[in-house]
Amino acid sequence: MRPVRTSVVTAAAAVAALTAVTGCADKSDAKSGGSADAIQVTATDTSCKLSKTDFPAGHVKFDIENKGSKVTEVYLLFPDDRIVAERENIGPGLKQQLTAEVKAGSYEVACKPGMKGDGIRQKVNVTGGTTAKRNPQLDTAVAEYRKYAQEQADETLPKVKVFTDAVRAGDLDAAKKAFAPSRLGWERTEPVAESFGDIDPKTDTREDGLEKGQKWTGWHRLEKSLWADGKIGQDEKDLATELDKDLADWQKRVGTAEITPTSMANGAKELLDEVATGKITGEEDRYSHTDLSDFKGNVEGAQKAYELLKPVASKNDAALTTELDKQFAALNTLLDKYRTDKNSYDFTAYDKVGAGDRKQLSDTVNALAEPLSKLAAAVTK
Question: Which residues contact 75 (CB under 8 A, 6 or more apart)?
């Protein structure tokens, strides 16, 4: 889910983490001045300016700079608000690059200062141009990733039903036990779920991420009842049934998701950003402290996308894939320290993980996130 900060102290910590994640790429951008052929996106707290709003179809690069005072997000959206591509968690003063495969048509670019609301939008027109050339191996990667995303959704629903059945039965202990396993498939493929726009807010929003007037539903609303309140009432039972319904909708729609090689690569980076800004801080599962299970799901999803793209990326940038192999291995090895069985997702409760260990986890995530941010460019060379 997209993280929202709850306090000034938390915000400062999050921005520090984000700076670490993106720092290397930002320095590179500063030296090179960005891509000569890229569309410049300048985001502030009150504006979203593009260097051009008409451009040809194909592989489109955006050089994004946040000149505002708030953490922001930038999206390329279909007219119905489905997400074509996005870059989240861009701290004040930072730069990011985004590469997307775009077909001819009408779109909108949205900058979201504070990472809330509909954002400040600019209409863009993508002309016929040249269709993005694609290595046939990338078509195979997309097909396999689509299959993977559908399998994760299909496997999630029965696990969610174990959780929601326990809630409806009023069995507090059983519901707590089933909570983390019910989330793994979602966490592995979250960028696909988020691409629809309307499902994530209903299923995976934390209380501090609610929009004005939005009813709080989904996993984290139930998490609070189970751990913080220690009770299951009729409201919780109704919310369990609503969660079943919303996730069934997700399962049915996964097959319609717009998936491209660049969206896979960008999605892998987004999953690492999820870790850096939610799991590392302990904000994601703040009541249950099952953050490391979600953490592992995010890493697995990112690694799956990478492995499918690797045959092409390794031909285009062998040094990059060598580094990614090394950093994925290091992060997975570190995560294994927090579970006694490598085939289990029963991790140490995150409130038992000390500050020094959290920093080590953060540093290892950052070491992977920086090269992972270059994967989209590598598959479009």
Answer: 83, 84, 85, 86, 109, 110, 112, 119
State the CB neighbour count (10 A cutoff) for residue 190: 24
* More reliable by pLDDT, 15 or 192: 192
Cβ–Cβ < 8 Å for 194, 200: yes
C-alpha closest to that of 375 among 261, 263, 265, 273: 265
* Segments in 254-288 forming alpha helices (H): 261-274
Cα torsion 313, 317, 320, 325 to 10°: value is 50
Judged against a pLDDT cut of 70, whether residue 186 lies above it is answered with yes
In angstroms, the CA 271 to CA 297 distance is 9
pLDDT digits (tens, 9 = 90+) for 195-254: 888 899 999 999 988 888 899 999 999 999 999 999 999 999 999 999 999 999 999 999
- Mean per-residue pLDDT over the chain, rounded: 89
Distance of alpha carbon 364 from the chain centroid: 18
The predicted model gives 129-153 an average pLDDT of 89
φ/ψ region of 217 (left if φ > 0, alpha if ψ in -120 to 50, else beta) reads beta
CA 355 centroid distance within chain:
24
CB distance 64 to 90 below 8 Å = yes
Using left for φ > 0, alpha for ψ between -120 and 50, and beta otherwise, residue 214 falls in: beta
> Above pLDDT 70, what percent of the chain?
89
Strands (E), 80-228: 83-90, 95-102, 105-111, 120-127
**Which residues touch 6 (CB under 8 Å, ≥6 apart)?**
208, 283
pTM of the model: 0.82
The answer to whether 327 touches 368, Cβ cutoff 8 Å, is yes
Over residues 265-271, mean pLDDT: 94
Q: Which residue has the tokens 């029963």?
A: 346
